[in-house]
């Protein structure tokens, strides 16, 4: 099989890296290493040059100032290691922590899951974090399952999901966790039955019997006395009036 040449800078097949998204650096290296294999590039110096040629000027200059870049005795992998140190969030041993899971669950406990779109977005993020944590033995599969089920909020959604699981998985004992995919399928089924969204009950309007009765307006006795006095005074003045002849 003939080797495929490395793509030119700005070619549609060229890998890209945005330093504003440092967590994507590992993907950049994975993409460029795929191209190395396809182009049969094996020399470390050539690999280092290709790794910098697809970058914006600022990043290219930064990478090429590393001593490991110009030192021909240093391998591409050594160069890659030093580059990864320039950007946070690329330590393969610390991709996610339990705090990331707590933050995700906290977010959805506030925003809730009202639609299939909400569910799928949450599921992708949850699966990505928890799969990593399980691989590092930081949480168990049972903890993953229970956390995912508890995240099915509001309470009306959780109740319907649990009811659906009891019907579809009658052999699962209450103390045993469900498979996460079964929980997801049940939630998806419930939300699909709600025409894509979970309705939220709005407060009912108060009935007429619950409305407060109009307050009775009582006359102030002082005002009534004043009005009576003024009426008497007017009568006295009227009796004393002598018309002009």
Overall description:
- The protein has helices at 25-39, 44-53, 57-64, 67-70, 76-84, 98-111, 116-135, 141-150, 155-168, 180-193, 221-239.
- It has 245 residues and is mostly helical.
- Helix 2 runs parallel beside helix 5 and helix 9 packs across helix 10.
- Mean pLDDT is 83; it is low at 200-211.
Give a quick precis of the structure.
The protein is an all-alpha fold and 245 residues long. It is built from eleven helices and no strands. It has helices at residues 25-39, 44-53, 57-64, 67-70, 76-84, 98-111, 116-135, 141-150, 155-168, 180-193, 221-239.
Features:
245 residues, mainly alpha, 11 helices
Strand and helix map with partners:
Elements (H helix, E strand, L loop, with lengths): L24 H15 L4 H10 L3 H8 L2 H4 L5 H9 L13 H14 L4 H20 L5 H10 L4 H14 L11 H14 L27 H19 L6
Low-confidence stretches: 200-211
What is the N-to-C succession of helices and strands?
HHHHHHHHHHH
Shape: elongated
User: Could you give the count of β-strands?
Assistant: 0
Q: Based on helices, strands and strand pairing, what is the structural class?
A: mainly alpha
The residue fraction in helices comes out at: 55-70%
Our Rg estimate from Cα atoms comes to 38 Å
First and last CA, distance: 136 Å
What's the mean pLDDT score? 83
Strand content: under 5%
So how many helices? 11
Sketch the major β-sheet: none
């Amino acid at each position: 099989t003939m080797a495929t040449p490395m793509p030119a800078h700005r070619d549609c097949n060229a890998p890209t890296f945005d330093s504003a998204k440092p967590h994507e650096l590992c993907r950049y290296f994975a993409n460029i290493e795929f191209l190395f294999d396809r182009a049969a590039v094996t020399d470390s110096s050539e690999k280092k040059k290709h790794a910098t040629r697809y970058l914006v000027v600022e990043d290219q200059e930064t990478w090429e100032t590393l001593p490991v870049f110009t030192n021909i005795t240093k391998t591409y992998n050594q160069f890659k290691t030093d580059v990864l140190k320039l950007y946070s969030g690329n330590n393969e041993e610390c991709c996610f922590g339990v705090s990331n899971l707590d933050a995700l669950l906290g977010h959805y406990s506030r925003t809730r899951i009202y639609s299939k779109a909400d569910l799928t977005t949450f599921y992708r993020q949850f699966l990505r974090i928890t799969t990593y944590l399980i691989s590092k033995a930081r949480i168990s599969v049972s903890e993953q399952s229970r956390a995912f089920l508890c995240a099915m909020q509001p309470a009306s959604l959780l109740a319907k999901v649990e009811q659906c699981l009891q019907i579809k998985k009658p052999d699962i004992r209450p103390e045993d966790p469900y498979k996460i995919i079964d929980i997801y399928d049940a939630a998806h089924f419930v939300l699909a039955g709600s025409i894509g969204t979970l309705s939220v009950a709005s407060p009912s309007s108060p009935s007429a019997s619950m409305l407060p009765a109009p307050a009775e307006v009582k006359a102030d006795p002082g005002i009534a006395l004043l009005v009576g006095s003024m009426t008497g005074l007017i009568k006295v003045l009227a009796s004393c009036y002598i018309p002009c002849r």
